[in-house]
Amino acid sequence: MIRVTLVGEELDGFVSPSAGDHVKVFLPDESGESTVMRDYTPRKYDAEKRELTLDFVAHPGGPGAEWAMHAQAGDELEFGGPRGSLVIHNPNGRWLLIGDETALPSMMRRVEEASSDEHLQVLALISTEEDKLPVDTNANVRLSWLTRSQRPNAEQTRATDAGAVINALKANPPVPGTFVWLAGESDMVRQVRAFLLSELNWPKKCLRAAGYWKIGVAEGHEKFE
Q1: What is the pLDDT of residues 105-143, one digit of tens each?
Q2: pLDDT tens per residue across span 134-144
Q3: d(CA 122, CA 99)
Q4: Is the pTM of this model over 0.70?
Q5: What are the backbone dihedrals phi and psi of residue 68, each rounded to the nearest 5 degrees, phi first?
Q6: Is 146 helix (H, G, I), strand (E, B) or coil?
Q7: What is the number of other CB atoms lying within 10 angstroms of the CB of residue 46?
């Protein structure tokens, strides 16, 4: 991950009440002649300092990652939003967060903002042990870093493999009343969502799932109702 902190008077009045928020970042394409848009989670905002933190997954080829990997102090970044926020309330205070690297900014923000009376289970899908991130929270958190299968196939193909997540859910299913938040590569999300609904009989009202990206598609966002 690459962390970039934006500062400036233009950030005065910025509001992001939900860890599921996103801003639309405007970036040059590979030719540099036109603009592409990508969504990123407001990782943290300090209103007093007017500082907005964004985390980028470091991977070659993506316009956001390429910008972040070459960013220097003084560079400008244009963005808009968040246009709206969905703040989910669960009276039980129990949450299960599932996602891959693209969902880490949302999940880590949610964990860090959680109160001491909340209980969170986190299943974070990563490629290697070196991809683990530190987290500081007052909540009761059980954080599991799940490494993808290291079969000799393409890394992108492994990104769709939901096996590690499903096995973790079989071994330690969430307790009733837990709200499940799920995001990441679309095919992986679809498989995990199907397992939750069909195998664990999880109620749809306690589940929110979204595909943050899809292999082979530049703008691969997908919502699951």
Answers
A1: 999 999 999 999 999 999 999 988 889 999 889 999 999
A2: 988 999 999 99
A3: 8
A4: yes
A5: -65, -40
A6: strand
A7: 13
